[in-house]
Design brief:
Layout lengths: L8 E5 L6 H12 L2 E4 H9 L3 H8 L1 H16 L5 E4 L10 H8 L1 E6 L2 H7 L2 H5 L9 H19 L4 E4 L5 H11 L1
Parallel strand pairs: 1-3, 1-4, 2-3, 4-5
Helix pairs in contact: 1-9, 2-4, 3-4, 4-5, 6-8
Bound molecules: shikimate-3-phosphate.
The site of shikimate-3-phosphate (S3P) has 9 residues, from loops.
GO molecular function, one term: magnesium ion binding
Function: Catalyzes the specific phosphorylation of the 3-hydroxyl group of shikimic acid using ATP as a cosubstrate.
EC number: 2.7.1.71
Length: 177
């Protein structure tokens, strides 16, 4: 029972492993709108899996493809929830762009909470995280979070997602939109 109109675009941002895709799917279901995953859109656009884009074309290329896929998704006419890659807000003025296009939600977790959530198969699919020992992973996530937080914090809604289940977090976001 919304008194005001829902935003047409909802962008989820945050570190790898924070739950953007799982929370995003649940939120889209609640809002009865389309769910999109930016990494999947990049894979469709490039015809390659994300780790292969990094390996074969490099991170610089990946960031350009990401910025392009983001703008194409935002230009769609339908209402949608978009889960973005962890680095997306920090390149190509993407964060300002998302803020200008709809609601932005930062799913905030501590580095320790992120490590606890990332499974071995999650790590395999993430070129910037794979091949790290647990200690190295914690240090990498802490350093990266410190660099990225100024971007994430520009979100219109910051949600502490640690230790809470997916339906609870999605419900809280829905109530704040
Ligand atoms: C990245 C996060 C990934 C993916 C790419 C780069 C990053 O998305 O976009 O591997 O820079 O943190 P997730 O946040 O879904 O892991």
């Amino acid at each position: 029972s919304q008194l005001t109109e829902l935003p047409a675009k909802v962008f989820l941002v945050g570190m790898p492993g924070c739950g953007k895709s799982t929370v995003g799917k649940e939120l889209a279901q609640r809002l009865q709108c389309t769910f999109l995953d930016l990494d999947t859109l990049i894979e469709e656009q490039e015809g390659l899996a994300v780790p292969q884009v990094f390996e074969q074309r490099g991170q610089e290329y990946f960031r350009q493809a990401e910025a392009q896929a983001l703008r194409l998704a935002a230009a769609r006419s339908e209402r949608l929830v978009l889960a973005t890659g962890g680095g997306a807000p920090c390149f190509c003025e993407n964060m300002g762009f998302m803020v200008s296009q709809g609601a932005t939600v930062y799913l905030k977790l501590t580095p320790a909470e992120l490590v606890a959530r990332l499974t071995p198969s999650d790590l395999q699919g993430r070129p910037l995280l794979r091949d790290k020992t647990p200690d190295e992973l914690l240090v990498y996530l802490a350093d990266t979070l410190r660099q990225r937080e100024p971007f994430y914090q520009q979100a219109s809604l910051v949600v502490a997602a640690g230790g809470r289940d997916v339906p609870t977090v999605a419900q809280q976001i829905e109530q704040c939109l």
